[in-house]
Amino acid sequence: MANSKFEYVRNFEQADSLLPNTWIVVRVDGRAFTKMCAKYEFEKPNDRRALDLMNAAAKAVVSDLPEVTIAYGVSDEYSFVFHKSCSLFERRASKLVSTVVSTFTANYVFSWSTFFPDTPLSFPLPTFDGRAVCYPGIQNLRDYLSWRQVDCHINNLYNTTFWALIQLGDLGNKDAEKTLAGTLASDKNEILFSRFHINYNNEPEMFKKGSVVFRDYELVDPESHRVADEMDDIAEPARPSKSQSDKDRKRRSKARVVVEHLDIIKDDFWNRRPWILS
Ligand code: ATP
Ligand code: ATP
Ligand code: MG
Ligand code: MG
Ligand code: MG
Ligand code: MG
Question: Ligand 5 centroid to 194 CA: how many Å?
Fold first, then answer.
C-alpha cells in the first residue's frame, strides 16, 4: 500500500515482545483502593461484596482470554498467568497488559451494581494498573503464586486481629497497631482466641486463601499423575503444533471457568489438575 510521508513515525515504536517460552504473569492492582474502601464504605477487614466483584471481573477476563491458564486474586489485586506457549499479540507486553487491565476494569465497572446494589458508583471511578513479568520455569511460577498466597495469609491474619481489636476491643488505630507490633502469627491467633473467642481457622476460606480462577475439567487421581517438573521441561521443550494449540484453545474456551479458594502452595492442587501447567 502506498504510504504517506508521515508513515516513518511508526519506527519510533519500541519492540516489547516478552521472552519466548516463559510463563507471563500480568498482575492488576486497584488504584488508591485505600481511599475507595473509605468512599464506598467497604466492610473491614474484608468486604465480601468487593471480593466477589473482583472475582467476577477476573472470571470474565479468563473466559475472554483462553490463553490465561490460571488466575489468583487477593485484596484489590489479581494475577493472570499466560501459558508459556502463548502467542497472543505476538507476546507484546503493552498489548497483553493493556488488554487485561481494560477487560478487567470494564467488567468490574459493569458488574458493580450487581454486587453493590445500594451503592451507586460515582467519581473517582475504580481504575487498575498492570504489569507483566516473565517466569522461566514452573517452579518460578509456582513460587510467584505461593508468594501472593502467603502474602494473603499474612495480611489477613494481621488485618483480622487488627480490626477485632478495634471493632470488638474498642481500641483506637494507634493502640491496635501498638498491640500488634512485633507479634508472631501464634500471638495473633492467641489474641483472637483468648480476647474475642475467634478461631482463625474458622474464618472464611476466601479471606484466608484468596481466590483461584481456572478451567475445570475432570479431577485427576493424584497418585496416577504428576505435574511436569523442570526436568520434563528440559527433556521436552517442544511447543505444541499450531493445529494442536488451536484445538487446545478451542477446548479451553469451552470449558467451565470456576472460582475457588484453595491452597495453591502445596503440590496437591497442581497434581490433581495437571492440565493447568501442561
Ligand atoms: P495503590 O494505588 O498504590 O495500589 P492502594 O491504596 O490501592 O494504593 P494497596 O496496597 O493496593 O494500596 O492496598 C489495597 C487496600 O485496599 C488495602 O488496604 C486493602 O485492605 C483494601 N482492600 C482491598 N480489597 C478490600 C476488601 N474487599 N475489603 C476491605 N478492604 C479491601
Ligand atoms: P484489533 O483488535 O486488532 O484492533 P479491530 O477490529 O479493532 O482489531 P482496527 O484496525 O482497530 O481493528 O479497526 C477498527 C475498526 O472499527 C475499523 O474497521 C473501523 O472502521 C471501525 N470503526 C471504529 N470506529 C468506528 C466508528 N465510529 N464508526 C464506524 N466504524 C468504526
Ligand atoms: Mg499498586
Ligand atoms: Mg491498590
Ligand atoms: Mg493491592
Ligand atoms: Mg482496534
Answer: 30
Q: Which residues approach ligand 1 with their CB closer than 6 A?
A: 29-34, 37, 42, 44-47, 50-51, 75-76
Q: What is the DSSP letter of 88?
A: G
Q: Looking at this predicted complex, what is its ipTM?
A: 0.95
**How far is 266 from 260, CA to CA, in rounded Å?**
15
Look up residue 139 and give its three cell numbers: 517452579
CA distances from 110 to 56, 84, 121, 197, 256 (A): 10, 31, 10, 39, 21
Using a CB cutoff of 5 Å, list residues around ligand 4, an ion: 29-30, 33, 76
- pLDDT per residue, tens digit, the chain (278 aa), is 668 999 999 999 999 999 999 999 999 999 999 999 999 999 999 999 999 999 999 999 999 999 999 999 999 999 999 999 999 999 999 999 999 999 999 999 999 999 999 999 999 999 999 999 999 999 999 999 999 999 999 999 999 999 999 999 999 999 999 999 999 999 999 999 999 999 999 999 999 999 999 999 877 776 664 544 444 444 444 556 778 777 777 777 788 999 999 999 999 999 999 999 99
Ligand 5 geometric centre to CA of 74 (Å): 8
Question: In angstroms, what is the C-alpha Rg of the chain?
Answer: 21
Q: Ligand 2 center to residue 103 CA distance, Å? A: 17
Indicate which atom in ligand 1 lies nearest the CA of residue 49: 27
